[in-house]
Specification:
This protein is mainly beta. Helices cover 11% and strands 36% of the residues. The strands form four sheets. The chain has a 21-stranded parallel β-sheet that branches. Strands 2-11-10-4-5 form a five-stranded mixed β-sheet, with no helix packed on it. The protein has a four-stranded antiparallel β-sheet with strand order 1-3-9-8, with no helix packed on it. α1 crosses α2. The longest helix has 11 residues. 48% of the residues are buried.
């Protein structure tokens, strides 16, 4: 698998510059060591179980395909797995020797030029004895299919050639206009993937659609395009529903897109035209739609530490709400561009793990530092809203040293940025100077809005702010009361009033 990815990287333009690093990022997730000489099951080189299999019960049209062997399995370097209609016509093919196999369309994503954008992804994920095949597209509902597998697609496996061996049928689609959709990876819902449910919502949607996601782990890139506003995605609890993928800058960001024509790769709805050319594609869960709400689940970017910028959640629309959500990654974990409200949530990371352009109001949440670095980087224009953190807790991993983390940093391109911490409980990993500047100093940073009020340690004692950066400022009690109001930052929008999450101090 490692050698296959090295070959792939050298042949596919969008990941031309990723090099062996990409193999390192993905292979630990996708590859398990073989337990036999050829990596196939001992029972004649055949899988023990195929899923879905049989036509007695219909399955989701976006179902993954799974083969389970009686011992550890290894993926080959060539060969095809093909899904065919009952009449024999091919509808999707995973060809291990074809670089195009490692790309797919997701969520009708289109570039800033209106052209379809193709994402790099893993079509086959091998974990121990089980291989999961993630097709390039959702199948047609209400149809019968069968699957063939070439010999050698899995090392030592003689293949599946009979149209009677691996058959299944897909369920009918939900009725048009359905406003409540269910996602269940086990097949008990309308869809097996979150993206399948998102894609079923008509473009130009004007009414609220709720997508309930059952407990489970959903290993997928999710993208909600600007033509699908008014979605509400709700899990069964942050400890029970997890959406995640090892997406990152090397796989689908600046490094991967540098040689792809801008007509295919430039981000839509770019807030900052130059910095935001390609970095919209690297999140595990990305939203370019307005009026979006995410609640009661975890979004986890599975990229390992040091694996480049890797947003877990990226919100780039107006009126985005995160409520009781866990956002987990390392660098750039949560990115918000446009008006947003984050409440009762948890975000962890090490470098700029809360960032974007604002305005974003954060309340009753925990921001945990996993290493030395910076909690936030807010890049707003002069007089534009930034980020306000109210009643948050700043915590750290046990390995993070005292005085090794800054509340926020900014570079000279954004000298009027705003980051405000009000009544924040912080551990002693926050450095005495509090704030950082790159490429300029306080003599030219007089328009900065690095503000703070009522900071205390985790036991409730006041924090000594006497050594804070000289162009930062401590707010008065009256100013702090003003900025505690979400509508003050969000141009009259108060999502806490809309959702019933009233908050009084």
């Amino acid at each position: 698998m490692r050698s296959m990815f090295r070959q792939l990287v050298s042949r596919v333009r969008p990941i031309l510059r990723a090099g062996p690093v990409l193999a390192v990022l993905l292979a630990p997730v996708a590859v398990a060591p073989s337990a036999t000489a050829d990596g196939a099951g001992a029972a004649g080189g055949r899988p023990v179980a195929l899923a879905p299999n049989g036509t007695a019960e219909a399955v989701c049209a976006d179902t993954p395909l799974r083969l389970t062997f009686d011992s550890a399995v290894r993926l080959g370097t060539e060969g095809r797995l093909t899904v065919r209609r009952a009449d024999g016509g091919a509808v999707d093919t995973v060809d291990l020797a074809d670089p195009a196999t490692y790309q797919r369309l997701i969520g009708d994503a289109r570039s800033d030029y209106g052209q379809p954008h193709r994402w790099n992804y893993e079509p086959v994920v091998v974990t121990g004895r089980t291989a999961t095949v993630l097709l390039h597209r959702t199948l047609e509902p209400g149809q019968r299919y069968y699957v063939t597998v070439d010999p050698g697609f899995f090392l030592g496996h003689r293949g599946i050639t009979s149209p009677r061996e691996w058959r299944f049928r897909t369920a009918d689609a939900p009725r048009p206009g359905t406003r409540n959709l269910r996602v269940d990876a086990r097949g008990a819902g309308d869809f097996c993937t979150v993206q399948g449910a998102v894609d079923s919502v008509p473009e130009g949607n004007r009414a609220e659609v709720r997508i309930d996601v059952a407990p489970g782990t959903y290993r997928e890139i999710v993208y909600v395009g600007p033509s699908r506003p008014h979605l509400r995605v709700r899990g069964a609890g942050a400890g029970r529903t997890v959406i995640g993928y090892p997406n990152n800058n090397l796989l689908n960001g600046d490094s991967a897109m540098a040689d792809v024509p801008p007509e295919q790769s430039y981000c839509p709805r770019r807030v900052l035209p130059q910095p935001d050319r390609f970095n919209c594609w690297r999140a595990a869960f990305g939203v370019d739609a307005d009026d979006f709400r995410l609640s009661d689940l975890t979004v986890h970017n599975l990229t390992p530490k040091g694996g480049s910028q890797a947003e877990a959640f990226r919100g780039n629309g107006d009126r985005i709400v995160l409520d009781r959500v866990r956002v987990v990654s390392f660098q750039d974990s949560l990115r918000i561009q446009g008006r947003a409200f984050v409440t009762d949530s948890y975000v962890e990371g090490n470098v700029d793990f809360f960032w974007g352009t604002g305005g974003v109001y954060v309340r009753d949440s925990e921001l945990k530092s996993l290493d030395i670095g910076y909690i936030s980087q807010i890049r707003n224009q002069p007089d534009a809203p930034g980020a306000v953190f109210v009643d948050t807790r700043l915590t750290r991993a046990d390995s993070v040293a005292d005085g090794s983390v800054l509340l926020s940093r900014i570079d000279s391109r954004f000298p009027a940025s705003q980051a405000v911490f009000i009544d924040t409980a912080m551990d002693s990993h926050v450095a005495p100077e509090g704030w950082g500047l790159t490429g300029f100093d306080c003599t030219s940073g007089q328009d900065l809005r690095f503000w703070e009020y009522g900071s205390k340690d985790l036991s409730g004692a006041p924090v000594d702010t006497g050594e804070r950066l000289s162009c930062s400022r401590q707010l008065s009690a009256a100013e702090a009361r003003t900025w505690r109001d979400p509508a003050r930052l969000l141009n009259g929008w108060d999502p806490s009033a809309e959702s019933g999450h009233s908050h009084h101090n």
